[in-house]
Amino acid sequence: MRPTVRPESGTEPKAVAERVDLDAEFRASNIQPLLDELDRELIGLTPIKTRIREIAALLLVARLREQRGLTSDRPTLHMSFTGKPGTGKTTVALRMASILHQLGYVRKGHLVVATRDDLVGQYVGHTAPKTKEVLKRAMGGVLFIDEAYYLHRPENERDYGQEAIEMLLQVMENQREDLVVILAGYRDRMETFFQSNPGFHSRVAHHLDFPDYALDELMAIAELMLGRQQYGLDDASRAAFREYLARRMEQPHFANARSVRNALDRAKLRQANRLLRLGGQVTDEELTRLDAADIRQSRVFGDETTDQERP
Question: Fewer Cβ within 10 Å of end Cβ, the chain: N or C?
C-alpha cells in the first residue's frame, strides 16, 4: 500500500504514517460483549478480570501488527490458573476460549476440561491413546487440566503420568497455533509441580492467581444465584445465610462459590419439604422465598465441631 503524503509550503512532500483506529478495531473484534459477560457472571475477581482484559489487548495489538506486516512472534498463550475450588477458574477459562476464538487465535473456541483420570492410563500402553483422544477433542480450542499436579505421582514407580506429561509438552510446543493449554490447581501444589516439571513452566506465559471470595462477595454471589432461579431471601433469611457463610468459611473443605451453590440447593430442599408438610394453598411469594428456618436447619449451626457439611 502506498503511503499518503501531505504537501507542505516550500518543502518536499513528506510521507505520513498510516494510522489505525484502535477504538474501531476493538469494536470490530466483538470481544467487549465477552468481557461484559464475564463481569456479569463473576462477582469480584477484579485482578483476574483486569488481567484478562490486558491479555485481550495484547492479542488484539499482536493481530494488528501481523496484519500490517510488522515483525512479531505469535504470543505464547498457555496459562496457569491457581486458586482454591469455586473461585471461577473454569468460568474464566471458558470465556478465555471465546476471546481467543473471536480474535482468531483458535479455530473453534471450545473448552475441554480434563483431569488425570482422562489422560493417564492404568497399565502399559493405556496412557497414550487416552491422552491422544483428549488432545484430539481439544484441538482448535482450549484444554483445561484441573489439578494438573496429579498428572504424575513420582512416589509411585508404576505411575504412567510421565508419559502423558511428555505428550502434552510436545503438543504445547509443536502445535501451539492450534491448541491452548490451561493448567489449574491449588497455588502451592502448582508451584511444586512447575519446579518438578520445568518444561511446563517455560511454556506457560500467563500465571493468574484467583483469590478467595470475601464474605460480602459470597453474599452477592448467593443473591445472584437465587435471582437467576427466581428465589429470594427476606431480611431474616439473609441474616441467617450470612451467619451460615461466616461459620462455613472457617470449616475445612470450603469451596467458595461452589459451597454457596450447594448450601442454597440444600436450603431449597428444606423449603420444598417445609411447604409440603404445611400443605394447603401457597402463593408465588412463598414458593420463591427461602425462610431463615430453611437455612438454620443446616448442621453448620450445630454444636458439634465434627458435624461439618461438605462443599
Answer: N
Identify the CA nearest to 89 among candidates 113, 110, 120, 107: 113
Residues 6+ away with beta carbon under 8 Å from 164: 119, 120, 127, 130, 131, 151, 152
Phi-psi region for residue 30, left (φ > 0), alpha (ψ -120 to 50) or beta?
Answer: left
The torsion region of residue 8 among left (phi > 0), alpha (psi -120 to 50) and beta comes to beta
Query: Which residues, other chains included, contact 177 with Cβ-Cβ below 8 Å and sequence gap of 6+?
Result: 74
Q: At 164, which amino acid appears?
A: A
* CA angle in degrees (0–180, nearest 5) for 23-29-32: 75
Q: Look up residue 291 and give its three cell numbers.
A: 425462610
Consecutive 10-residue runs of the chain (311 residues): their mean pLDDT? 48 62 89 92 93 94 88 86 95 95 94 96 88 96 96 78 93 93 96 91 94 96 96 97 97 94 97 94 95 96 53 44
In this structure, what C-alpha cell is assigned to residue 123?
Answer: 497399565
Q: What share of the chain is helix, strand, coil (3-state, %, to 5)?
A: 55, 10, 35
Distance of CA 278 to the CA centre of its chain: 42
